[in-house]
Amino acid sequence: MSLNIVERTNADEAISLELQGSLDSDTAPQLDDRLNSIIGPETKVVAFNMAGVTFISSAGLRVIFKTLKLMKSRGGQVSVTQMSKGVRKVFEIVKVMPDLTVFASQVEMDEYLEAVQRRAER
Question: Organism's domain of life (predicted)?
Fold first, then answer.
C-alpha cells in the first residue's frame, strides 16, 4: 500500500502533515525524506494528522520517534491527531503516548499551530 503525504502547514516553527495510507517499511523512507527536506533549523513543532493511516509498522514508528527525539532536543514537540483505534493501540503498546501531544480533532490541532505561529511572529 502507498502513503500520501499532504503538507497542511509549513512555517518556520511549525509543520503539519496529513498522512494517508500505510506507514510501513516500504513507505517510511518516503516520510523520513519528506521530513528531512521540510524541517528547518527553527522548526519546533511537527504535527501529524493520522486519520488516513490504515497501518503503522515499526519502520513507521521509527520515523515518528526520530522526529520526536529531534523536536525534544530543540525544546519542541510532536503532536498527532485522529489516530484510528488500531494505530492508537500500537502507540500505546510501545508506550510513546506520554511523550506525544494528542489532539481530539484537526480543529484543535490547527488552533494550537496557529497560536504557535502567532507567538513566533512577535
Answer: Bacteria
Question: DSSP letters along 9-63, please?
Answer: EE-SSEEEEEEEEEESTTTHHHHHHHHHHH--TT--EEEEEEEEEEEE-HHHHHH
pLDDT at 116 over 90: no
Q: What are phi and psi of 40, to 5 degrees?
A: -100, 180
Going from the C-alpha of 39 to that of each of 19, 32, 35, 94, 96, the distances in angstroms are 16, 10, 6, 25, 21
Which structural domain range is residue 32 located in?
A: 3-121
Mean pLDDT of 85-92: 79
Condensed to tens digits (0 to 9), the pLDDT of residues 26-70 reads 999 999 999 999 999 999 999 999 999 998 888 888 899 899 999
pLDDT score recorded for residue 42: 92
How many domains are there within the chain?
1
Alpha-carbon distance 16 to 110, whole Å? 9
